[in-house]
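Title: Comparing notes on inverse folding

I've been comparing how different people in this forum approach sequence design from structure. To keep things fair, I'm posting one structure and asking everyone to reply with a full sequence. Here's the target:
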């Protein structure tokens, strides 16, 4: 009961802070961490008070559900559910991604090939709307339009204060098989086979993702929840997880370590800070080997441009940031990866197969108009994060624009947590502009919250 009283007080504080923002002033959350890569303009607004909305209100082990506050990180959520032998149906790969952020901005992980995306396990949620009201949205009822449009709305329709989500049982460890492929077509055939059968070579598959080091060297990582393991690997110390795929055919991680296997080195991006060098790694405190620490360092670089100034002094070309996650239909994935290798040349890249959930529970296989993936269609999320040199005669953004065109030609979609360059007509066509406007007019009639296009493309 105390948790619920504290939650009500926190929601009241949020509403008061929203009411205090002058009309016409940009509205933002006062969050300590962020996993966004979109540039943001400075604002005098102190940000909405979400300081009391970062916890887990309750876990119902019998019903396999949890009531969670919107600013709760998945790190805190997992800490609350694992003691019950449960985990969220999808746990995004970075510790400080919040549940509200994963729903309004999308998230994905290795269970997405049968559990879909995080918003598909939400059965109801409380939302602070642009009108300053708290509404409870469910798949049916008065606010079903807001429930459907909320995923991928990026805070343009409101902010989640409480979400009820489904949970799934989990075992003590995850046994891994790292399957190598030398042909991309064989890799995508294997993904389709696992999706269709739920197994590989007679063994069940509970989790699936992969890494492409080159078109001739790719790995599919197949995970099975288990209690029957004798030895567990540890990639929080000197060993680096993604490198293990090349030298281990079989592996095993404790469930907790498996969920955060990518966070320690921010996939492979910690190399940019020297953290993968053996000497630096020994000196770099383990508590600082986290994605949020690396992200803060990136923000400092964006602000002060130290590396860019050094490159100019050395006569090196300026670099374009290419930080994206895209969803491509399975049958077009091999062609897209070959195109990407020829035209962008960034390696490694991450693969994460996904499908919208089959109709087996609340919220499953519904229409999500702001990110309209097709029911029954298998996709592969392809993640690539880094920079490329800007060629002579080219402009910053040209590579990202070419990627957007290639993804659209492949019938795919692009997540909006980073740079986007669509014109408004294309954006509205790809991201449910007509539906968004109708829901926006109903729940934010004065348009106090920044619009979706303005957030994702035109910048805040």
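Reply #1:
Here's my take.
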């Amino acid at each position: 009961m105390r948790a619920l009283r504290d939650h009500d007080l926190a929601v009241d504080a949020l509403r008061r802070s929203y009411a205090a923002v002058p009309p016409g002033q940009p509205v933002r959350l006062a969050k300590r961490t962020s996993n966004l890569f979109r540039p943001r303009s400075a604002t005098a607004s102190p940000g909405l008070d979400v300081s009391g909305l970062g916890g887990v209100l309750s876990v119902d082990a019998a019903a396999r559900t949890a009531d969670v506050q919107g600013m709760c990180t998945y790190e805190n959520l997992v800490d609350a559910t694992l003691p019950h032998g449960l985990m969220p149906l999808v746990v995004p790969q970075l510790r400080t991604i919040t549940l509200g952020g994963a729903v309004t901005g999308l998230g994905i992980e290795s269970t997405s090939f049968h559990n879909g995306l995080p918003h598909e396990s939400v059965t109801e949620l409380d939302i602070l709307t642009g009108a300053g009201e708290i509404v409870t949205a469910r798949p049916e009822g008065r606010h079903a339009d807001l429930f459907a449009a909320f995923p991928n709305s990026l805070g343009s329709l409101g902010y989640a204060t409480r979400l009820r989500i489904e949970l799934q049982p989990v075992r003590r460890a995850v046994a891994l098989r790292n399957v190598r492929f030398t042909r991309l077509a064989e890799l995508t055939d294997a993904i389709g086979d696992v999706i269709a059968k739920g197994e590989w070579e007679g063994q069940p598959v509970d989790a699936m993702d992969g890494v492409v080091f080159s078109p001739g060297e790719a790995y599919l990582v197949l995970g099975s929840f288990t209690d029957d393991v004798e030895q567990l690997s540890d990639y929080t110390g000197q060993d680096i997880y993604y490198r293990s795929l090349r030298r281990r055919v079989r592996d095993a991680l404790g469930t907790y370590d498996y969920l955060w296997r990518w966070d320690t080195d921010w996939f492979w991006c910690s190399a940019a800070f020297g953290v993968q060098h053996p000497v630096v790694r020994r000196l770099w405190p383990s508590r600082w080997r986290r994605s949020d620490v690396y992200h803060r360092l990136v923000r400092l670089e964006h602000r002060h441009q130290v590396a860019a100034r050094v490159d100019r002094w050395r006569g090196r070309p300026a670099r374009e940031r290419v930080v994206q996650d895209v969803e491509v239909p399975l049958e077009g994935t091999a062609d897209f990866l070959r195109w990407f290798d020829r035209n962008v040349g960034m390696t490694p890249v991450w693969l994460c197969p996904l499908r919208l959930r089959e109709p087996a529970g609340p919220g499953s296989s519904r229409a999500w108009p702001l990110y309209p993936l097709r029911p029954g269609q298998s996709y592969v999320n392809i993640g690539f994060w880094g920079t490329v040199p800007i060629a002579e005669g080219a402009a910053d953004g040209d590579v990202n624009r070419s990627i957007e065109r290639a993804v659209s030609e492949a019938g795919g979609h692009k997540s909006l947590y980073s740079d986007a360059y669509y014109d408004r007509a294309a954006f509205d066509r790809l991201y449910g502009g007509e539906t968004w406007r109708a829901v926006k007019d109903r729940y934010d009639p004065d348009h106090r919250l920044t619009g979706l296009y303005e957030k994702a493309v035109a910048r805040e």
